Amino acid sequence: MRFRRRVRPLVGSHLALFCACTLDTYGISDSQGGATTTSKGSESTGSTPTSSATSTGSTETTGDVTSAASDTTAGPDEGGCGAPAPGESGSLIRLVKFSGARSQVLHGAALDPQGNIYVVGQFDRELLLDGSTMATSDTQVPFVYKFCPDGKLQWARHGQSTDLALEEYKPEQYRLAIAADAGGAYITGRLRGSVSFSTVSLKPSMPEAAFVVSFDADGQPLKGVLLNAEAAAGMDIAVDGDEVFVAGMCYAPTPLKPTGILLSKFNTSLSLPEESHCVGGGSGELGRNTTARSLTLRPGEPTMILGGTVLIPEDPTAAAEWGPCDGGVVNNRHGFVAEVSRDPADWASAETRWNWCRVFGSESNNEVVLDTAVSDQKILTALATGGSAEALGTCGMVSPAELPGGLSFAWAALDGGGSCTHAEWFPTIWGSGYLFGVEPAGPSEFYLAGRFDKTIDIRNLQLTSLNQTFFAARLPLSLSSQVTWHVRAKHTSDTQKSGATYVTANDSAVVFLGYARGIGELAVGEDSVEVGTDDEHQGASKQAYDSFLLLVRP
Fold first, then answer.
1. Which H helix or E strand runs over 391?
2. What is the C-alpha R_g of the chain?
3. I need a surface site. Which of 6, 78, 345, 459 has the fewest CB within 10 A?
4. Whole-angstrom distance, CA of residue 147 vs CA of residue 149
5. pTM value?
6. Are 290 and 258 in contact (CB under 8 A)?
7. Which of 412, 430, 408 is nearest to 422 (CA)?
8. pLDDT tens digits for 376-432?
9. Where is the region Disordered (predicted)?
């Protein structure tokens, strides 16, 4: 079972796209629909978020009131909410396009216990969806949408911001993250300027800060808090019962102020001072930061699963803070997955903080764990890497002699003690293949979301394309079993790009987030939607891209 956001993220540089595109499903099998899965957004039934007095201690909040008249779109489509209609495994439920004059980025999604879907992202000046328009003069505008289980729009809320420190979508870029429970949703991110949602307004006194904003189930913003001065960016957020956890990046309280992993805890009303800790890493150059990118809770369990990047510090005292994460090369970037105590009293000491830690990579490679998921006793990880086969050699399952000719994306499954049980890489020809998301599909299968470039070989399923290409699939954990079903984009021009950036699921729907650049269509089954028309982009189609929410039957 899984309770959290996913990491969410990831688009490259702007390129001209003048092409047609379709997104099709392939290889639909007789596998059982409705497998037992759990969302990255929490399914817990914790207390409903409530408005409260300003926090004390290390958090800050202000209450500058702004008009809510223009930043909310309410009401589901005609007919109200409903469950997805029954259908064949791997078939389309709904495809929803986010478009506008410029670009839109979907950062993450979460499912609540009723199956409602929350999506968080950013847009540049204008956002169009299902007949509603959001418009602002700002360029980094955060938004939250809530959809019914069948994909119909319930409400939309956008904020105002001066600097969310968000740039083009890349595998290691800062992002917004979202979690949900029965009472509403929580978002986190990085703030360098100010951000406001109606009556909630935040402006840090430090150059950059991590923040959290809560919303009720009807889209009303309830409260916002800034984390303490060390906290630079919230990268993931999760909720279980009456507890909210944030993981991300911080600046360690040492003279050199190296980046480290941030751990923070709140109650669901965000009314208590946050408890947090910063575990510093090596100094590294820009873009090689130590940070936690993924946070997964197991309901009622005393521990949580973290994934991200670590530069093992050169200083022995600082390195000791990483405890069992000792398999890496000093000051070389490695992906890591760790089981960490949920009790903040344990965070200050390496002896009590870590249950175990698995480090991926070698001296010659730079690795990042982009996503984690938990199913029964399996911990799934998604890796972005410059040499996945060698990285997985640290699992003792793939020989470095099997290094692919090009770059690849990879995943690994760990048992409850952090030992590798499965590991697999999928070779690609060019250097932009990434696996951005993993999600369990019952005890013996899982979903993945990513992109491949030119060609990819997945268990004898050989795919070709003209450029970066959306790819999503359901696979058995058994490496000898074939792909259950998959979805991919089909390009007609080598200037078009697309990708799947996020996945979460429950027993009635698999939620994929993606992007597409170009003029044409995305289609799955009988559904299709036009992407990136000249009229929408007002002459800016060379720079702009559209994002989309894809719902597929398990």
1. helix 388-392
2. 21
3. 78
4. 7
5. 0.84
6. yes
7. 412
8. 778 988 876 554 445 565 675 554 445 444 456 788 889 988 888 888 877 766 656
9. 32-86
